[in-house]
Amino acid sequence: xxxxxxxxxxxxxxxxxxxxxxxxxxxxxxxxxxxxxxxxxxxxxxxxxxxxxxxxxxxxxxxxxxxxxxxxxxxxxxxxxxxxxxxxxxxxxxxxxxxxxxxxxxxxxxxxxxxxxxxxxxxxxxxxxxxxxxxxxxxxxxxxxxxxxxxxxxxxxxxxxxxxxxxxxxxxxxxxxxxxxxxxxxxxxxxxxxxxxxxxxxxx
Length: 204
Fold this sequence. Notes:
By secondary structure, this protein is mainly alpha-helical. The protein contains eight helices and two strands. It starts with a helix and ends with a helix.
C-alpha cells in the first residue's frame, strides 16, 4: 500500500455536509416521534426526551462517520449520502410503531481488499460498543433522570451495534464475517451481552 493511501485524510464536501444534516434531522425526528421502547411517559419529561433524541441521532452519525474516516484512512473516497428509499422508510417510521432508521449511508469508492473492507465495516459497530460501555460504566453511579438517560443511551448503542453486526443483506456484519469470522463472533458476542444487560437492567 502506498504512503498516500496510508495517510489519514479527513475531508467533507459541501454536498456531504448537507446530507449529514438531513440525516441528522430525520434521525432526530425519529427520536422524538415516539419514546424508545414504548415509554410514553417520557413525553412528560421534555428534557429527558430531548437528550435521548439527541443521543439517538448522534449515535447514528458517529457510526456512519466511523465508516467514513476508516475508509479515508485506506485512501478511499467516502462520503455520507441520504438515499431516497432510506429517507422514505425513515419518514414513514415517524407514524409507525415499528421504527426503521436508515436515512442514508456512507458511500465508498475505490479499489480495496477484503481486509480493508472488513475493518471499514467493523468501525461503526465498534464505536457504538465503546459508547455503550461508557454509558454502562457511569450508569452505576447515577440516579434519577440522569441515570435514565444513560441507561437508555446504553440500550440505543448496544442495539445499534448488535443489529448492524447481523451477517445478513447489506449490514456491516456480512462484510466483517467474510473478512474474519473470529473477530465477527467476538464483536457480535460483546454487542449481544451489552444488549442483554441493558434490557435486563431495565427489568430491575
